[in-house]
Amino acid sequence: MTRQSLSVFASLFLLAVSTLCVMPLNAQMAEVKEKPAMYSYIANWQIPRAHWAEMEKSAAGRNAILEKALADGTIVGYGDDINLVHTAEGETHDNWWSAMSIAGLVKVLDKFFAADISASPNAASPTKHWDSIYVSHYYNWRSGAFKDGYVHVSAYKLKADAPDDAVESLSKHMIVPVLEKMLADSTILEYEIDTMAIHTEAPGTFSIVYVTPTPEGLDTVQAAIRGLVSDHPLSGQAFGSMTDDNGHRDELLKGSGVFK
Length: 260
Prior knowledge:
By secondary structure, this protein is of the alpha+beta class. The protein is built from eight helices and eight strands. Helix content is about 35%, strand content about 30%. A hairpin with an 8-residue loop joins β6 and β7.
């Protein structure tokens, strides 16, 4: 995916800021409410290309446990992804599951250990592995399974002087209204705005994730947003005042999963 001067989600922010200029504040506040915390466990793996097929075969053992956890309400979703835009140090694959508590995440992890099933098979010979646990208060999805969806992740770093409620404010007034519209018209299947729940990295970052069912959906999001944003060229000031562009990174993955 070609990197533009602003990412897709920077454009989303700009559009929403421009919308704020013409909407009463009380109307904006009424549109979005913080949801109960949703936690996500993500296991990241760097797998040599010769072993990618082994990684795919390992999903059956994991998914049997995850499907049972989904059915009994321990988790609300799970899936796995393959990275489409590789970096020298980044992951090639990940697998994940989400729950409404950290306990739900750990119960699944305990079942993997008890069954002697790793989140990834040793046979795949990973060269690197790391885990992350995120929390989101702004998310939504279409229930059901998806296969070979396209997962776009935009990570941002907040400026040191950003207000304590910067992520909340950006989510409520800018990001979520736009993503909800795209969810309603089926351009995307799921979205979430994540911060770290277990700080294995420095605080002060947040990520915006969305899943689209087709590659054309990626272009649809970008084209629609850029077309609207072009009418409001000054509207990026609010976003830029809170985030450090040097800390921005994107990922594009292809994955399958299911949400309850």
